[in-house]
Amino acid sequence: MSLLSRKATCNSHGQDSSYFLGWEEYEKNPYHEIQNPSGIIQMGLAENQLSFDLLESWMANNPDAAAFKQDGDSIFRELALFQDYHGLPAFKKSLVDFMAEIRGNKVSFNPNKLVLTAGSTSANETLMFCLANPGEAFLLPTPYYPGFDRDLKWRTGVEIVPIKCSSSNNFQITESALEEAYQLAHKRNLKVKGVLITNPSNPLGTTVTRDELNHLINFVDAKNIHIISDEIYSGTVFDSPGFVSITEVLMERNLEESSNLSDRVHIVYSLSKDLGLPGFRVGAIYSNNEDVVSAATKMSSFGLISSQTQFLLSEMLSDKKFTSNYIKENKKRLMSRHDMLVSGLRNAGINCLKSNAGLFCWVDLRHLLSSKTFEAEKELWKRILFEARLNISPGSSCHCNEPGWFRVCFANMSEETLNLAIRRIKDLVDTIKLDENTRRQRRSVRSPRKMSLTKWVFRLSSSHEREADQR
Ligand SMILES: Cc1ncc(COP(=O)(O)O)c(C=O)c1O
């Protein structure tokens, strides 16, 4: 008899995926420019470390915020005792204003419809608990963030059914792919409760188009199901086309208020990527649905944001001069890093999916596979991990249905480290090409001999035959 529960020991957590295995290998031998220059470079972690100096300089200029002082007076005791799971009103207000600013103030958000959570991880799981029973399903476009297997399925018992997107149309979500996924769920006897998208997409680094959003809205409307839009990367959109939030499309179609459809649209957000603060654990659910807000608020007791974090960030985000400069500057830096990676890879003969957002590129290594299979993808991933010493995430860990795509992160390291990583990948590509040429040469050396031998045997046998005929 097991000493642990079935939940604790079942493997739907996804810990065995190569996404997490790559991290384990990295931890055994992490790159450090002085202490371990031949170590593994971590390129499997979507962290934004490009704008820390902006946050640090704000902290230096606003010492009262970190010292828990307001108008010169300490509010330490107040914060130490604060335990209202609705969250600090000042923080909720500054967070919704920040969300609106990221969306160019084309939409506004009501703080009463916001539920605070410990990051998007907790927000997504809470929404699953609120919207689906164990054994019911959510449809997710592939490829998707590997952590969703853990966040959406593990503790809730909810199932994920893939909406299969393909490279033939740059992995866009089509009406037929949506319908196919819905039918697939039915074949598996799963009741579909909703669709979950990430906009901008992790791992693609692309924004969801207005057309796609319209298809999605029509689809969930027709099927009478929910849609969750995880917009954790909304502030990372550094190039055109710009970011369009699902709320904006609802507003354009006058579906925003009254309609029962808007009650089925939920947004997930977090400061882990846009502000680069995953350690602070700050996330949120935004929903027009009062029942969802009320249930999720009760559940948020399991994953609250500490009151000192809320206080510090409410001070920071209510500084409009800071937020507007931060948003602009951070995007500029992301774009320059993105361009560095894309052009470095291009020099190595590698293409990326054209992207305009995120902290990563979706890299096409199909031409380096020994065959068009996921085994070959794993083989290549291992060579990249152990020979080039780069931890990148294979497409299979993101449930991509085409082997040969990899997610490569670019914002969690210095420029020098990124350049080194590019040199290492180029060296590996050269080695793979050299191996391939050697194999080809060996084949062509072997085959003429085989041919001449065949000819010789043929000649011999035909002369034998002639002799026999003559006999
Ligand atoms: C799409 C997506 N959703 C949610 C998360 C979890 O983020 P958080 O740190 O806010 O829990 C991530 C983290 O990488 C992500 O990429």
TrEMBL record:
Transmembrane segments: none
Annotated Gene3D superfamilies: Aspartate Aminotransferase, domain 1 (3.90.1150.10), Type I PLP-dependent aspartate aminotransferase-like (Major domain) (3.40.640.10)
Keyword Ligase attached: no
Pathway: Alkene biosynthesis; ethylene biosynthesis via S-adenosyl-L-methionine; ethylene from S-adenosyl-L-methionine: step 1/2
Cofactors required: pyridoxal 5'-phosphate
CDD domains: AAT_like
Biological processes per GO annotation: ethylene biosynthetic process; fruit ripening
Top-level EC class: lyase
EC code: 4.4.1.14
InterPro entries noted in UniProt: Aminotransferase_I/II_large (IPR004839), Ethylene_sulfur-biosynth (IPR050478), NHTrfase_class1_PyrdxlP-BS (IPR004838), PyrdxlP-dep_Trfase (IPR015424), PyrdxlP-dep_Trfase_major (IPR015421), PyrdxlP-dep_Trfase_small (IPR015422)
Catalysed reactions, as listed in the record: S-adenosyl-L-methionine = 1-aminocyclopropane-1-carboxylate + S-methyl-5'-thioadenosine + H(+)
Family per record: Belongs to the class-I pyridoxal-phosphate-dependent aminotransferase family.
Name the UniProt record assigns to this protein: 1-aminocyclopropane-1-carboxylate synthase
Organism: Macleaya cordata (Five-seeded plume-poppy)
